[in-house]
Write a structure and sequence with these properties.
single chain, alpha+beta, Arp2/3 complex 21 kDa subunit ARPC3, Heat Shock Protein 90, five-stranded mixed β-sheet, 67% helix, rod-shaped
Length: 599
């Protein structure tokens, strides 16, 4: 017995579900060999009982049975317990076949004496038992090989693979069984093909009907089991049983319903939709049982003049119903799982967005505080820097007032030069402070009338425009935009001022407009001034970078174009220049296109 225990205890195919079931049994038992004996006895007894049930469903004057329940039980118990179930299946199959031969012989002798007189039948029964065992073993191997663990009947793919495996493994027992009967002379040659097909179809139907029910209910966790056992399930199965009895057993003599098996399909679908896979497998069992009982009693829609035709129609019906319900349930399960995953992902994303929003709000508060502190520091630093400059300027003014007449003119000129330098330094400090604030303060986005903004700029520059005799042209009314009106006005001011300063023509002009290219709009300020060399086009946007001397073309700090670039980029746009020396320059800039408002 120890060697047998080693054989049945070896596990070529380990599965978490099998390990869980076996470990629970071992925890409640004393020793492994007793567990093995228990496995063998209980499985053999159940297999034998189901075999007798299957044989009782045979058509009269026929060896054909519409369904072979032991095949479904053997496959399911192998999936649950692994290879430990194989000895019990083998003994049960051999015992069932020996009993079948004995009872069909109607011999008035003891069973042991019958066996001693028919040794060939013992060999045939052993061969058939081996075929049934190999069928279950092959199914176990293929499921563990092609179906991910703990996913059987939980996805469309697993159901399709299960059906294909069922169709394949049933050829094993059919081939071995028919071959054994043929070699022994029990089965005539002309019945080989029909018996093989009937055998294969009966085993297939048994697996498709019984394996899902046994596997699902025995493997179902307690929490899901409690959920499955609900009043809805009971009412649904009672209604299905009543409808099935009317259809297949002609209950109530409702001839129209008894001839329409397809009317059960909506009822089955409704049960699957409302309940779970456990109830679906029970529904398959109920419909199969009622259709088989009706057909063997020549009742229901599958009864034909020929028993083989009735058998084929019945087996096809129960197999198709089983496959359809399993596929439908797995599709619904996948949909539920997908919705749950989507909801879980949505919730996780919402949580992450909330966390990120909180982080950004915190960062924005810190940034706002930092900007305020930086502004305060800049104001203090600017005042502190300007204060000594003013004091120096005052001292220089006092020196010139008190001692100007006593100093050499060259010395006076140099002292006055210091005053100009101090004023330029003060201007640079103010410009630098303004530039730093441009990038730190939020834009005040609002609907802006750019035509009015440009007119206000031109009004403020009117005196200087008249002095320089500059003609301003605006070919078309500028559009309305969502932008920071004050800052975009500053962009136009700097570009117009730049065009006024760098112009040496006798007839000076500045043109302000925009160009529309589909949904994109670009603004421009054009002049007929001195132009810019290609090598210097990138330099003009560098802060404090001047291409000419400090006192040429009206002087300046060299920060105007840098501020323009900063403001345009804050609006999500860009600025560039097209120029030709001696002809003039055109400065283009864009604002973020989806912020434009068409009038």
């Amino acid at each position: 017995m120890q060697s047998v225990d080693k054989i049945v205890s070896s596990r070529l195919f380990k599965d978490p579900l099998q390990e869980s079931i076996i470990s629970k049994i071992e925890m409640r038992s004393g020793s492994s060999w007793l567990i093995t004996l228990g496995y063998v006895f209980i499985i053999s007894l159940i297999y034998y009982s189901l075999a007798r049930l299957g044989l009782s469903l045979q058509f009269e004057q026929s060896q054909a049975t519409p369904i072979w329940p032991p095949s479904g039980f053997a496959f399911a118990i192998c999936l649950l317990l692994g290879q430990r179930a194989l000895p019990g299946i083998a003994f049960g199959a051999i015992a069932a076949n020996l009993a079948d031969f004995y009872f069909k012989s109607e011999a008035d002798i003891e069973f042991s004496e019958y066996l001693s007189r028919h040794p060939a039948e013992i060999i045939v029964c052993i061969s058939i038992g081996i075929g049934n065992t190999l069928e279950a073993f092959a199914g176990l191997y293929l499921v563990n090989r092609f179906v991910p663990k703990n996913t059987l009947f939980k996805s469309i793919k697993s159901v399709v693979v299960f059906v294909c495996i069922s169709l394949a493994i049933c050829t094993i027992s059919a081939c071995i069984g028919v071959l054994s009967l043929a070699i022994s002379g029990i089965l005539p040659d002309f019945l080989w093909s029909s018996v093989w097909f009937t055998w294969w179809l009966g085993d297939t139907a048994g697996i498709l009907i019984f394996t899902p029910a046994i596997y699902v209910w025995l493997a179902m966790p307690v929490r899901e089991l409690r959920k499955e056992l609900s009043p809805t399930m009971v009412l649904g199965l009672i209604g299905l049983s009543l409808f099935g009895a009317i259809t297949f057993l002609e209950l109530g003599n409702l001839s129209y319903l008894s001839a329409q098996a397809y009317l059960l399909i909506p009822v089955l679908f409704a049960i699957v939709f409302v309940t779970g896979v456990g109830t679906a497998t029970l529904a398959i069992l109920i419909i199969s049982a009622l259709s088989i009982l009706g057909t063997i009693n020549e009742l229901g829609p599958f009864v034909r003049g020929n028993q083989n035709t009735s058998l084929s129609l019945l087996q096809g019906f129960v197999s198709v119903i089983s496959i359809t319900l399993l596929l439908l349930d797995s599709a619904l399960r996948e949909r539920r799982d997908a919705l749950e995953n989507l909801k879980r992902t949505h919730d996780e994303l919402e949580d992450r967005v909330k966390d990120r929003t909180h982080q950004l709000e915190t960062a924005n508060r810190y940034l706002a505080q930092s900007n305020k502190e930086l502004d305060d520091f800049a104001d203090i630093a600017t005042n502190d820097l300007k204060k000594p400059i003013r004091e120096i300027d005052n001292q220089i003014a006092n020196i010139l007032e008190d001692y100007g007449g006593k100093l050499d003119r060259t010395v006076v000129n140099r002292i006055e030069k210091l005053t100009e330098i101090l004023r330029r330094l003060e201007t640079l400090i103010s410009t630098l402070l303004h530039f730093s604030r441009v990038g730190r303060r939020d834009l005040l986005i609002e609907e802006a009338d750019l035509q009015s903004s440009v007119q206000m700029v031109l009004t403020s520059l009117k005196t200087r425009l008249d002095e320089l005799d500059i003609v301003v042209r605006i070919p078309a009314t500028l559009p309305r935009f969502k932008c920071d009106n004050a800052r975009v006005g500053e962009v136009f001011r700097n570009l117009i001022t730049n065009a006024m300063k760098y112009n040496d023509k006798a007839e000076k002009w500045v043109e302000i407009g925009y160009e529309q290219n589909g949904p994109n709009t670009k603004f421009y300020v054009k002049d007929n001034g001195i132009g810019i060399e290609d090598d210097n086009k990138g330099k003009i946007f560098t802060i404090f970078k001047r291409l000419h001397g400090e006192n040429q073309y009206g002087g300046g700090t060299g920060a105007g174009m840098t501020i323009v670039k900063k403001i345009v980029e804050l609006h999500g746009g860009r600025v560039w220049v097209e120029s030709k020396v001696g002809v003039g320059s055109t400065f283009y800039f864009t604002l973020k296109k989806d912020e434009r408002l068409i009038r």
